[in-house]
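QA checklist item 7 of 12: single-chain prediction sanity check.
[x] sequence parsed
[x] length recorded as 451
[x] structure emitted
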Amino acid sequence: MGRRTIAHRIKGGLRAVVATGALLSVGLASGTARAESTITIATVNNGDMVVMQKLSPQFEQLHPDIKLRWVVLEENVLRQRITTDIATKAGQFDVMTVGNYEVPIWAKQGWLEPMDKLPASYGVDDILKPVREGLTYNGKLYGLPFYAESAMTYYRTDLFEKAGIKMPEAPTYEQIRGFADKLTDKPNQVYGMCLRGKPGWGENMAFVTSLVNAEGGQWFNAQWKPEIDTPEWRNAITYYTDILKSDGPPGATSNGFNENLALFASGHCGMWIDATVAGGLLFDKKTSSVADKVGFAPMPTGSFKGAPTWLWSWNLSIPTSSKQQEAARTFVAWATSKDYIELVAKENGWVAVPPGTRQSTYDNPAYKQAAPFAAFVQQAISVANSTGQTKAPRPYEGAQFVAIPEFQGIGTQVGQTIAGTLSGQSTVEQGLKTAQAATERTMRQAGYPKK
């Protein structure tokens, strides 16, 4: 992980960045980077990254010898570009926005620089432990988190009240289906359920994998045999396609995180199950027309309780192919620091700060007051259980992804097949058989099971 980007949708709601005022420092001397350095930053077009780009002139004022060049891309495109660049050592980018899926895998390949030599003021120990562990390989950090997330259920409190229903403290998928039917009002363009339908291992398959886990399924058994054409997957995908066909917006296969965020924020979704990072935008009156009508609850549960749910972080990493590593490190430390979070709070309010990364954020009274979802999100991250077990034993880690190099291709291919079942190009049964056969072929070619 289409629309013209969330930047266009929320542009009018973001405060202009002042060119003067207090400058930000993370304890790095401005003279440490090589003079006249230009670093190229590849990032995703999510709201928090848009803010980072808008605030970056303040970094350039603090470090006049470092210039920033931005490449802002839609999620699937970003992944394709940076994966190709780093695997071929092309060196187009000095800073890459990557997930906790890529960081340990790429670090093992020797493609990323370790994130050491940080100033004491940076506070590595302040980073939430589950997030920090996901970016560590052989005892070293290879990325610094810009924001982190689990997932939860967002819902419109006014629509629930109008329909005479109440969200339970721990909803089930069965209950959610009934609520969606009651909330849907298609003549007024209100849809009971918005979910990711855009194909991609980090788009539709992020939600689908969590749903499959909740229904007792998994990607692979203990011998690395694909387990896609199974009753558990069939139950999950039938639920997914049925609820979106009955209660979802039109063109759901075009909707990823950003598109659904825009739909909910503009009043078109009764419920939305997705990343906790959306809370800061949905509760912000500058970016959401329903800011005072948003409720939240945990991700729904299925037939298997305690399954891995969702743990993701967008991180800034430096490829070994970068020729501007010192300048890149200076920028990454700035953009992921405690001081940067305070800068965002100053410019856009505490509700808008990058969430999920630092204990100091969650300890801050101003953040607690501005973000009613704060404690909920921290708890969701702590229990995401990304290294836990599915109903049957599994040989891999990851909550909403499989932490093996092959998953990027497998997840994308299966995501396209699942999108085909959603659009009616194939039945659920046909889609799962196709996905099973394709995944078996890929795993066989990759030499699984590994000796």
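[x] summary fact logged: Residues 1-34 have pLDDT under 50 and may be disordered.
[ ] second reviewer sign-off
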